[in-house]
């Protein structure tokens, strides 16, 4: 890369909404060296996530994806019914097919005009221990596990 492009980031596309799908379809680089970080919540349906990442990877010099909680949900109507680790691994396979970097890949280094930037896409699950109980106190571990189970 020459450093003439830009390092861009976006999150929460939620393309299940028609207006968001239109917006995602309109995303285009201004320069051939533009990189795009897609920081989670592309969509709730497996095929939608793959479609958007493949489309963006075809347009931008480099796309880096890290999952949000919505990519990892398995909705009852989603034809791809894999759950948990299997779902994450299936999404990784889609990313690899289209050259999209993930938290499982070596950290890429973007050579910008202000110098190199190492990009470290992180994959962290929501930690229910940060939740507060009704009285404002931090949740106990047992309560955090109960909240996580209740949320599915």
Order of helices and strands, N to C? EHEHEHHEEH
**What is the terminal-to-terminal distance?**
43 Å
User: What does the overall shape look like?
Assistant: globular
Count of β-strands: 5
SSE class:
alpha/beta
Reported CATH architecture of the largest domain: 4-Layer Sandwich
Mean pLDDT, to the nearest integer, reads: 86
Identify the quaternary structure here: single chain
% residues in beta strands: 5-15%
Share of helix among residues? 25-40%
CATH topology of the largest domain: Purple Acid Phosphatase, chain A, domain 2
- What is the gyration radius calculated from CA atoms? 17 Å
Widest beta sheet: strand line-up: 1-2-3
Which residues sit in consecutive blocks of at least 5 with pLDDT less than 50?
none
Biggest beta sheet attributes? 3 strands, parallel
Q: In DSSP terms, counting alpha (H) and pi (I) runs of 4 or more, how many helices?
A: 5
Task: Describe what you observe in this structure.
The chain has 152 residues and is of the alpha/beta class. Helix content is 34%, strand content 14%. It folds into two domains: 7-121, 4-Layer Sandwich (Purple Acid Phosphatase, chain A, domain 2); 124-152, no CATH class. It contains five helices and five strands; from the N terminus they run βαβαβααββα. The strands form two sheets. It has a three-stranded parallel beta sheet with strand order 1-2-3, covered by helices on one side. Strands 4-5 form a two-stranded antiparallel ribbon. 21% of the residues are buried.
